[in-house]
Design brief:
Elements (H helix, E strand, L loop, with lengths): L13 H15 L4 H14 L1 H14 L2 H7 L8 H23 L2 H10 L6
Helix pairs in contact: 2-3
C-alpha cells in the first residue's frame, strides 16, 4: 500500500518496521497541554470509573514509551476480564455490555459505529 502511495523509504521487513516505529514513537510523540486537555475531557464525559477503565485499557494496549509519557500504570490484572468480555460479546451480549459501560448519552452514537455481522 505504501509503495502504491509513493511513500519513500518504507521498511522492507517486519523487524525494520518495528525499529522504524520505535524511532517514530520516541521522536514524534510528546505529552503536551493538548494531551492533558484531552484527558480532562475524557474524564468529564466518561465519569470517574469509566475514565479509570479507559486508562487501564490504554495501559494494556500502549507501547511502553507511550505508557511512560501518559503516566499509565500496569493493568495486567485486567487481561482476563478482557478475554471474558470478548467471549460474552461473541455470545450475543455485546449490546448489554455497551449499555453497562457506555454513558447513556453516547450509546446510540457508539452503536452506529458497529458493523453489521455477516451470517
Amino acid at each position: 500500500m505504501g509503495i502504491g502511495l509513493r511513500i519513500p523509504d518504507l521498511p522492507t521487513s517486519y523487524d525494520e518496521w518495528r525499529i522504524d516505529r520505535d524511532e517514530h514513537l520516541r521522536r514524534d510523540l510528546v505529552r503536551s497541554d493538548g494531551t492533558d486537555a484531552l484527558y480532562t475531557q475524557y474524564r468529564k464525559h466518561l465519569g470517574t470509573w469509566r475514565y479509570v477503565l479507559l486508562l487501564r485499557i490504554q495501559a494494556m494496549l500502549a507501547p511502553a514509551h507511550v505508557r511512560g509519557l501518559l503516566g499509565l500504570t500496569s493493568a495486567a490484572w485486567l487481561r482476563p476480564l478482557v478475554r471474558v468480555y470478548m467471549l460474552v460479546a461473541r455470545g450475543g451480549l455485546r449490546a448489554l455490555i455497551q449499555r453497562l459501560v457506555m454513558p447513556a448519552r453516547y450509546l446510540a452514537s457508539v452503536r452506529e459505529l458497529d458493523h453489521p455481522t455477516s451470517v
